[in-house]
Amino acid sequence: MRIKKILALVTVILVVSSITLGLFNWQSANATKPNQKLIHPTGVDLSKPIKLVIYMVGNKPDDLEMVLKEANGKYFKPKLNTTIEVRFIPFADLQNKYSLILAGGEQCDIIYTANWCYYAQEAAKGAFRELTMNWIKKYMPQTYKSQDPASWEQMMINGKIYAVPKNSSPPVNYKFVVIREDLREKYKLPKITNVATYEKYLFTVAQKEKGIQALGVAGNNWELRQVLCKQLNKIWNIDESYDFYYKMNNKPDAPASSEIFYLFTSPYFKEYVKRMVTWAAKGVWPKNAINNTISPSDLFAQGRAASYVHNFAVFGSGKRLEEAKLGKAGYYDLTPDIKFKRASFANDAFAITRKCQYPERAALVLDMMKNDKNLNLLLIGGIKGVHWIEKPGNLYARGPRADKYSWNTWGWALTRPDLPQDAEASAVQRAMEKSIGARAIPTQTDGFVFDERPVKAELAVINSLRDEYVPALELGMFGNKTDEKLKEFEQKLKKAGLEKVLKEVRRQFDEYKKRKGLK
Amino acid sequence: MEKAHNTFSLFHKDRKVGVHTFWKNILKNKILLLMLLPSVLYVIIFNYIPMGGIIVAFKNYNYQDGFLKSPWVGFENFRYLLISNKLWLLTRNTILYNIAFILTGMIVEVGIAILLSEMSGRYFKKICQSAMLLPFFISWVIVAAIVLNIFSFEYGVLNNFLRSIGAEPFDLYSNQSIFPLFLVLLRIWKNTGYGSVIYLAAITGIDREMYEAAEIDGASIWQRIRYITIPCLRPTMVIMLILALGQIFKGDFGMFYQIVKNNQILLEVADIIDTFVYRSLMSSTDIGMSAAASLYQSVMGFITVIIANKIVKKVEPDYALF
Amino acid sequence: MHKSSIVGRGQIDKIIFNFLSYTIVGIFALACILPFYLVVIGSFSDERTIITEGYSLVIKKFSLEAYKLIFKNPISIIRAYEITIFVTVVGTICNLFITLMTAYVLARKDFPWRNGIMFFFFFTTLFNGGLVPWYLLCSEVLKFNDKIYALILPLMFSVWNMIIATNYIRNNIPFEIIESAKIDGAGDFTMFIKLIVPLCKPLTATLALFTALAYWNDWYNCMLFIRNENMYTLQYYLQELLNSAEAIRRIAEKSGRIVQALPMESTKMAMTVIATGPIILLYPFLQKYFIKGITIGALKG
After folding, report:
1. Residues of chain C scoring pLDDT < 50
2. B45 interfacial to chain C (CB closer than 8 Å)
3. N or C, where is chain A less crowded by C-beta within 10 Å?
4. Strand, coil or helix: A159
5. DSSP-derived secondary structure for A268-304
6. Which part of the chain is the DUF3502 domain (chain A) (predicted)?
7. Which one of A93, A299, A424 makes the best mutation probe of the C interface by having the most chain C beta carbons within 10 Å?
8. Model-level pTM?
């Protein structure tokens, strides 16, 4: 009886407190004073104070409110009579939530989008406002001037632009390796300059080091595929979001459309798979790596793996490894001489939504965020002196509250070419960044964007086959049955209509070349 | 034992309703109808109104035109299911796994419920019952990690043990014959605690008098289970079966995706409709194509249930759902 | 009948039965406890031990990092608990009332349209219009965004539970009881409250458990409708923490930048422990309803 009474009492208290908490907590006062007639130089009437809601991908930084207060108070409110609010869609909820936010009636004026973040599909569904060049010229004058022309092309769907891309594209699509330098020295192995020396390192570690796996992999081997298939053979995607490739051969020229091929039926892929079979046989990674979910970077940083492949993020894991005193990290580029296609600008962009009531105002906000250098730095790095500290030579260092607002965790689409670099980066990292940055070249294929709509059913099946076969193939799981499996994979792709899709890619590429006047 | 039959035969009489006219019936049952009102309204609002969304399976949906005015595309959204050349295989896998899950699940759940109900140790019983509910709280993501920890070929606990006693290591992740069985076991492990609660409640609801009478008649514990408990659980089992059959074309995505991953060797025996659709539409927000797949699953499930209910109605009219 | 010999055999049977049941139930319970135990140990372990050595039976290197991460904002997590408990308590009570009431009506043999209405309900378990129209209805028409009822309404009625309940009432409560109550002049609703609900204790306990678990574990509706961090439910709050840990890695790989790493693996496990605890403490209270049987016969007279 007594327990019952106590339980009832606790429940009542909880209920009451929850209600009071719930009811009184979400009333944000948004009182703004009426303004006199305010006209922006572009002709936009600014007299009405408005609030724009920007949706981003990722998680909210702890100090976001503090940064936004400064951005609104110093920039948006006085100059545009506008305030902005930034909301986040976590990566994990992206697929569920992204189109719901666009489909629903809630306020969302500007939204992050990208070629990997449903840009083409949502644009096709009419989620975004179409931006004509004239409109951009009028309402985003600074962007119009500063933006790389190729970046607009990369946003085009059937010749129409629906989003404003970033203005700098660091070569995150280029991969290199990090190894345990201490292990390399222990076994007196040569410096790693090419695939053969890397192979030797991995084989030695696999054979001699117990309790540590030579290469860290989780579920697939795509990072290594980038190096050994793409970079080594100098082949590159014709459109970054799809698996159709051409032989780039260090040159910027566009290929003949007939030279475009599907990666996973190409000899390059087969050759790579065969190499992976030997690596798997030597025990370079555990037999069940395909079912592993611990990320390679963690495996390496915690001393479980002796190497892994990725972009500049490897320096982070190397640092963690060294800080934990588990070993010494060494960074090596297996293809130091190749030139390659720079990453697509469409990797990060902002779209103004169809339901935005003040598209011109949104355009002005975007224009300012991208081009006002101080505002740009504020949004990307937080408050100067608090979240980041300026260092000579266009560098930045971590400020006292850097943990609460890390550098560039959401403003990817605001990236400019002149952003400060990390002052804490080692000389090796700096040199690597410089070398890789210099080899990312503009090419004639940069502006080509494949429109998948005519073949979306075929492509859906092809993608499901790709995700079914490729991870197992490239982890060498089929051993001596690999040829058989490759054939089976190819036949299934053929049945699913790979020819039709390839034909469509080639047709669109021909059209693109014609439009661009390329031969 | 006759008593058990008596309880059920009670329901055979009183079938005289339907003589009255419709309006008279409404007036007569106005309180009962009023009591149905909240749930009926609920279902209309939260289920039947949004159900109109099924039409996007036949449309090329866009925001401007919305659900009603978006252009019709016929069966275009279903096409990827057909050209995959896999629909039959996927459907078969999904059904077979579900049948295995339903049957083994039911046997184990009923078995555990009976054992628990007949056990005398109070605290042991309570502790075990609570313990069996624990797996329900462990997400498939963590289950997958634990499974890998035990069965990993190089580092797994099991294989380390096998090697230490000089036995051959066992590779679960490339064993196509053991793996389906393993999935069934995993499923039993995760769901039994939760599932057996229903049967436990049903057993608790059985009239004690029947057991007392049986005891006086000298029935053994086995006979009591065989002739009282199991027959009394039958209607519950039939209902649970019919409910499960409606979902027989829908697979447990979380389980299959997390445990199997993109392991082609295992996918050959463990690819289901839901994982295939996920792989196909992962990089897409095409609601038409996903609606097409779920409509297929719903229609097939619907047909199955209607047939099952018909059969039940013929054999045992009182157990039928509707 | 030779009574004495039967009693003897009965005792042997009982011993065999007890031996079998204790062994089977014990082993099964152990198989259920062990993985959970591994999770608890893992949640208190150093991240590196988990990654390099996997799950273990003893804590090799004690660490509270995961719990520190979860409790870094104690006020937020307490608030999340409050919201979740509130939603669970209110939701479960409302759900039970509606569900049992519906079940009672459909279980009445003298209710003329019960088959048709049962089909009307059952149909919704088979077909649904997908997420988008449902979301649009809830957020546009019913204005769910940032409202506490957005967390209660979507789970307030369960057709599955209702069918289970209907079946239970049909099979366990003899229709005679209802008829005699009717003759005594009891109204339909009074009969439900005074007669059916007390007779259905084991059923109510079962449904209460199922419903409470559904509310307790629900993060999906919170993900869809709640923007205000002060209204996050416990499960979504924990998930958000994990998301942000995952996001850090994704961002690092996306931008090629170095960022601080969070203990992902141990956090996952600490999350399980924290989210399981309260409900596992609650379950033993409900269990007494499964243990004590009821004697309906006594009511028949």
Report:
1. 1-5, 297-301
2. yes
3. N
4. coil
5. HHHHHHHHHHHHHHTTSS-TTGGG--S-HHHHHHTTS
6. 445-514
7. A93
8. 0.90
